[in-house]
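Entry 12.
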Amino acid sequence: MTPASRPATLQTIGEFGLIRELQKYCQTLHADVIQGIGDDAAILRTSNTQALIASTDLAIEGVHFDFAFESFKDVGHRIAVANISDIAAMGGTPKFLLVAMAVPPSYAVKDLRALYQGFKKPCQAHGISLVGGDTSASKAGLFLSLTILGEVPPKQVLTRQGAKVGDKVYVTGTLGDSKAGLQILQRQAKHKTPKAPQPYEMFLKKRHLRPTPRVAIGQHLASHHLAHSAIDVSDGLSGDIHHLCEASQVGVELWASHIPLSSQCQAYTASLRHNPIDFALAGGEDYELLFTIAPRHQSKVFDLSKSLRTQMTCIGEIKPKSHGLRLKLEGGTSRNMTRQSYDHFSVTGIQS
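Predicted 3D structure (tokens):
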């Protein structure tokens, strides 16, 4: 059998190839499906003035989290935020959360209480009710499946599909922190007698274990019709800008010198002699918002940044599809921007 005639495997097509393949079988048959598979969440019209947002995430011990360096409470918080962030990216209001889990019978009840305490804190902060789920036994490891439901007026919903040529590309906060924090946690778990902690380590570890969903920003961008498109940064900047451009059928030029980096991430990467931009491009789970706006709205975004006390940085411009996806380097040259994000079917280890 020649390589060309061999059947495709998940390893060859990757996670996003699988999603595109499954999309063929998920036809939109109902007129009230505003957005189906292929975005941060599904959008389902429930009335002329309201739409339901629905998203689900699977988290598996040893793939998405590791109790060698994070607690049950840490895991609950981080997985809840991952779901809340999907609602934020659509400009919606999160309302209800359901949790299904498969648990080894040997796990202590107190640990499951801590897991739910982790769920509870970000849910309380955003007025979300945990309303149900399902439980099952697991033969090995903890499996979590969270489903979040929210709402948004249909005319305000944000998707990945609306980016227009000439739009400015913005991102909230700083990027690469979660990846740096994860590496520090993994190193400390591996070396039982760690080196003296560096000043930047606590900040970066917290950015990984206690991310913040940008719900208020997403709602403002949607309700004031400021953003043409949006996505949350869960797969790393390089992966998520690919998702947005693919959905919108556009190209992009990002400016490396404008990508926002925390001083702590820069200090950590300098200690490794690594480029912090690579952490921003490849690192997932920052849960910042990446969005595009018409140039005339830049002053409004500046005002929003000040009022919400959240950094928002212009990092590039949407180009025609023929331009491709390019990263302009500090010296003025540019290169093609390849997707460096985590892929469940091509790599092993904890997601970042």
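Annotation: The chain is about 35% helix and 25% strand. The two ends are 36 Å apart (CA to CA).
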